[in-house]
Write a structure and sequence with these properties.
199 residues; mainly alpha; 2 domains; 85% helix; rod-shaped
Amino acid sequence: MKRLLKVFTYGLLVMFILVGCAKQPSEDMSAAQKAVEDLKATGAEKYIPEDTKKVDDSLAAALNEIKAQDGKFALSRNYDKAKQMLAQVKADAEKVKVDIAAKKEEAKKNALAGQQAARASVKEAKALLAKAPMGKGSRADIEALKGDIKGLEDSVPELQQLIDKEDYAVAIDKAKAIKEKAEGVSNQIKEAMKKVKGK
């Protein structure tokens, strides 16, 4: 009877240890890490950097919670909080992924609008140059302005290449620069025309 009691007690102890030893939520961890990797693969850091960093930080906090539990005595480990944190990371990553599509579309629209504005400004500068007064001293200036417009015309196709590569932020900046330079050329021509009229 004593022997049976001993075996039963050992059996209970083994069961208690097995139940008490919480296991690391490795599947949850992998799922959360994959969700964050997939999010970054969409270019989230470029379009929604703050939200992406928040998701990244949440993942780091969840992994730290797991480390903290790993460092505890086997029977006192509890990964429930870590599991909740990992589930939240996954949900947040999915939400940001949805937001990315809208942000990308908005950036694309802005890039296309910038491209159109740049083209229109270059076209206007070219049309004004055709009407520019050809005086004795203005020939060199006209040639310089022609060179500027040619350079701007040559850089306009690069905008489409950037848009095709989904590099919208760079495309927007470049379109703005082209537009401003073309407007500068137009203003120079207008000033020259005013001087001629004044004479």
